[in-house]
Specification:
The protein is of the alpha/beta class. Helices cover 40% and strands 19% of the residues. The chain has 8 helices and 7 strands. Strand 6 and strand 7 form a beta hairpin.
């Protein structure tokens, strides 16, 4: 990536005691990993637009992971649930081959308009993206079984169970389901947290962990990235 822009360092959480050297070292290592691949000006502008629109955007660490996963798969057909302002989309496109096509779904037309602006700024050919406005619950069932290399689920946590199942249906053998926000703002790992969203996200992780159709892993990047490779 070219034109890297400087990024501010993440502050250490104040609740970590200064004497807890091991914890501080672990947090410092996590922050280093998050910022290991810096974002260029196009991504930073897309991130700014996401903030202005009030839509979430993946961290740079998650983005770099998505690009690497797409590159490793040679992913030519990718589905994204939740376009936002195009931050995750740009990372995916950078990992995909030049003839790869990203199908991205979002209910908010304004979000997709911002994403298209980001694609244009990045020099992405219009033939490489297919933006579909609408509810993912309506769009996903219309997509072809076993035709996709990677499916990213990144919005509407209450619908994660349905999106995950639809995603598995869409994947070819060896394809990958990726669920962003799999730690639900660090609540999933705390068994005492039993609010509706946390419970749903936790259960999706358990189901994929125990699903014999996939090989799963939970990556501690961003707010948790759950990956499941279709057997």
């Amino acid at each position: 990536m070219h034109g890297h822009a400087a990024r501010a360092q993440h502050p250490l959480p104040p609740e970590v005691p200064i004497t807890d050297i091991g914890a501080r070292s672990k947090i410092s290592s996590w922050m280093y990993c998050e910022d290991f691949v810096p974002e260029d000006d196009v991504l930073l502008r897309a991130r700014e637009r996401a903030a202005e629109l009030g839509c979430s955007a993946v961290s740079s660490g998650v983005g770099a992971t998505l690009a690497a996963l797409a590159a490793g798969l040679g992913a030519r057909s990718v589905v994204e649930v939740g376009t936002g302002a195009g931050v995750a989309s740009l990372w995916l496109l950078r990992g995909m081959p030049e003839d790869g096509v990203l199908t991205t779904i979002d209910l908010e037309v304004e979000h997709q308009r911002a994403a298209k602006r980001a694609f244009a700024e990045a020099g992405v050919r219009s033939t490489r993206t297919r933006t579909i406005p609408g509810r993912a619950s309506d769009v996903l069932p219309r997509l072809t079984d076993g035709a996709y290399d990677l499916v990213l689920v990144g919005t509407d946590k209450p619908s994660y169970p349905d999106y995950a199942e639809q995603g598995l249906r869409l994947l070819r053998p060896g394809g990958m389901l990726v669920v962003d926000g799999a730690l639900a703002d660090d609540r999933v790992a705390d068994p005492a947290r039993r609010d509706e969203v946390t419970t749903i996200v936790r259960e999706v992780g358990r189901r994929l962990r125990d699903d014999e159709r996939v090989v799963p892993a939970l990556l501690p990047v961003g707010d948790g990235l759950l990956v499941a490779v279709r057997r």
